[in-house]
Fold these 2 entries.
Entry 1:
Amino acid sequence: MYRMKKNLLLLSLLALALTACREDDPEPRITALQITAPDTTLYRGDSLRLRLTPTPPDADIRGAVWTSGDSLVAVVTPDGLVRCVGPGRTVITARLEGTSLSAKYDLTVAARATQSIAFSEPTLTLLVGEEQPTALVFTPANTDDRRATYTSSDTAVATVSSQGVITARGRGTAVITARTADGGQKAECKVSVQHFTERISVWLSGTWIYESDNLVSACARMTLRNDSNRDLFVERFIVESDGREIHREEIGRTLSSGSKLACDVTFKNAHDPQFKYQFTVGSEQYEAHYRPHMIGAKTFPADGPRTLPIVVSRRR
């Protein structure tokens, strides 16, 4: 029994000695760091897991700090996960705290090439003085370089800004061309420019009695229709006789695209009568007027425009 107790005591002392030796052993000294990653092409939005390997490989690297040289290209999390932000090149660095050791990884984020571009509206019809922003559709939709330059085939008809805003300058047709920054792809937009007066319809209806040369009595209706894509603000309806105003109706109404407005008037013995609508478009003032020159009785139907000498002009 005594011998058995002695042997157990010796074994216990030996175990304590071995444990003490292990606790006193220092951690392996790290001599180098290396970053490795899968060989793949990266694009904006992709992620990549980097692996930090020490020498010797069993050393503790839990104190590693990760940084990116350009956060516009890529960012990196504390555990070495890289997220690609945009095309370009940057350096990902891992440093071991408390040492001078570090490792670097050259990272390239490739740009997705543009396969084609197109205007969202390939044809436009504008009025003189109007501005129209344009939009380009890129294929693929996640193209990285979305820069473009713009030119006009006829700047007397339409000009275009560096941001793709078209300004209608004069009547006619022009082609706006957009090119990608590398010049590899292009798109075209056909622009037709009209005067505003070409987008207004005016017609008359009623019964006219011509008693002598240019002396007339009438029950008449003058209709104004807005065929443009702009709102009109109709100010008033006027009838004149020999340049003297014999009827005025203040309207003060906005006439939207596709809408029409009719005003009625009855008068007797007017000489050389003229009928006028005065309206504004934006800051521009216009007038639509008709001056009849007929003798005898005449009835105009109210079902549509007539071929009459109706003039729409800008007021000065």
Entry 2:
Amino acid sequence: MGEAVRSDSEVAAMLIGELAVEAGTTTRALRYYEEQGLLESDRTPAGYRLYERGAVRRVRNIRELLSCGFTVEDVKSFLAYLDADLPDVFSYSPVCADGYGVGAQRVAELDGRIAILTQLRDSLVHRMPWLAASDDSADEPAV
């Protein structure tokens, strides 16, 4: 009792909660990805979202790209590759020309931020030399 009977075509599909668990995310994130055009679903007669089994890889890839600092808009440049094994795609640089360009732009932005932060750190250590000594003590073993 309480368990819905699914047709053969639905057995290969997953409900939103199942996909969230399999992909390690939330149903809210899945709805957001769908709103942004990164993920597609069908609907049951009752209106529940149904996702293909391959959506697990797609969602994991979306999450991986987001965790690397890409924005949702950036991830859209990888749409054609979201169902593939991303390490395989990335190892053949630049298979995905749009994604490669976005990646290069993100690296340049990070390099700029690192340079600014390094200058700020150096300026602070210059003004407060005792802070440099605390950096050296991090290399010493604890007694």
